[in-house]
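Q: Got a minute? One more chain.
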Amino acid sequence: MVMSNLRFRIVRFVVTVLGALSLLIAPAALLAQSAGEASAAPCYPGFATANPYIPSCNVGPRRPKPPGGTPDQAAVIACRDHPGCLSWYINHPH
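A: Always. Here it is, folded:
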Protein backbone atom coordinates (compact mmCIF):
# COMPACT_ATOMS: atom_id res chain seq x y z
CA MET A 1 0.00 0.00 0.00
CA VAL A 2 2.82 2.40 0.81
CA MET A 3 4.58 1.66 -2.51
CA SER A 4 1.35 2.20 -4.45
CA ASN A 5 0.83 5.57 -2.74
CA LEU A 6 4.42 6.59 -3.52
CA ARG A 7 4.02 5.70 -7.19
CA PHE A 8 0.81 7.70 -7.38
CA ARG A 9 2.51 10.73 -5.81
CA ILE A 10 5.46 10.49 -8.23
CA VAL A 11 3.21 10.19 -11.26
CA ARG A 12 1.07 13.10 -10.05
CA PHE A 13 4.21 15.22 -9.52
CA VAL A 14 5.58 14.43 -13.00
CA VAL A 15 2.25 15.20 -14.66
CA THR A 16 1.99 18.50 -12.74
CA VAL A 17 5.53 19.53 -13.71
CA LEU A 18 4.92 18.67 -17.38
CA GLY A 19 1.68 20.63 -17.37
CA ALA A 20 3.36 23.65 -15.82
CA LEU A 21 6.22 23.49 -18.34
CA SER A 22 3.79 23.29 -21.23
CA LEU A 23 2.02 26.42 -19.97
CA LEU A 24 5.35 28.25 -19.82
CA ILE A 25 6.83 27.01 -23.10
CA ALA A 26 3.80 27.16 -25.40
CA PRO A 27 3.28 30.97 -25.26
CA ALA A 28 7.00 31.57 -25.74
CA ALA A 29 7.04 29.31 -28.79
CA LEU A 30 3.99 31.07 -30.26
CA LEU A 31 5.50 34.51 -29.66
CA ALA A 32 8.81 33.47 -31.22
CA GLN A 33 6.99 32.19 -34.29
CA SER A 34 4.96 35.38 -34.73
CA ALA A 35 8.05 37.54 -34.17
CA GLY A 36 9.82 35.59 -36.88
CA GLU A 37 7.00 36.31 -39.29
CA ALA A 38 7.01 40.01 -38.44
CA SER A 39 10.74 40.38 -38.95
CA ALA A 40 10.80 38.49 -42.26
CA ALA A 41 10.93 41.67 -44.35
CA PRO A 42 14.19 43.59 -43.87
CA CYS A 43 12.68 46.83 -45.16
CA TYR A 44 9.52 48.94 -45.13
CA PRO A 45 7.50 49.11 -48.36
CA GLY A 46 7.44 52.88 -48.77
CA PHE A 47 8.78 55.68 -46.60
CA ALA A 48 8.09 56.18 -42.91
CA THR A 49 7.06 59.77 -42.35
CA ALA A 50 9.57 61.72 -40.24
CA ASN A 51 11.63 58.59 -39.49
CA PRO A 52 14.57 58.36 -41.88
CA TYR A 53 16.17 55.46 -39.97
CA ILE A 54 13.69 52.83 -41.17
CA PRO A 55 15.08 51.14 -44.30
CA SER A 56 12.87 51.53 -47.35
CA CYS A 57 12.35 48.87 -50.01
CA ASN A 58 11.84 51.60 -52.62
CA VAL A 59 15.50 52.66 -52.71
CA GLY A 60 18.65 50.65 -53.12
CA PRO A 61 21.01 49.63 -50.35
CA ARG A 62 21.94 52.47 -48.00
CA ARG A 63 25.53 53.40 -47.34
CA PRO A 64 26.77 53.88 -43.77
CA LYS A 65 25.95 57.35 -42.49
CA PRO A 66 28.81 59.24 -40.85
CA PRO A 67 27.76 61.96 -38.39
CA GLY A 68 27.55 65.27 -40.25
CA GLY A 69 27.59 63.59 -43.66
CA THR A 70 25.14 64.17 -46.47
CA PRO A 71 21.77 62.46 -46.13
CA ASP A 72 20.75 59.73 -48.53
CA GLN A 73 17.65 59.84 -50.74
CA ALA A 74 15.49 57.88 -48.28
CA ALA A 75 16.19 60.40 -45.49
CA VAL A 76 15.39 63.35 -47.73
CA ILE A 77 12.06 61.83 -48.76
CA ALA A 78 11.13 60.69 -45.24
CA CYS A 79 11.90 64.11 -43.73
CA ARG A 80 9.96 66.07 -46.36
CA ASP A 81 7.60 68.65 -44.76
CA HIS A 82 8.97 68.00 -41.24
CA PRO A 83 11.10 70.91 -40.00
CA GLY A 84 14.20 69.82 -38.11
CA CYS A 85 13.94 66.16 -39.10
CA LEU A 86 16.72 66.24 -41.67
CA SER A 87 18.97 68.33 -39.42
CA TRP A 88 18.49 65.87 -36.59
CA TYR A 89 19.24 62.97 -38.93
CA ILE A 90 22.46 64.58 -40.18
CA ASN A 91 23.80 65.60 -36.76
CA HIS A 92 22.63 62.65 -34.67
CA PRO A 93 25.34 59.97 -34.28
CA HIS A 94 23.06 56.98 -34.84
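A: The chain has a mean pLDDT of 79.
Q: Perfect, thanks.
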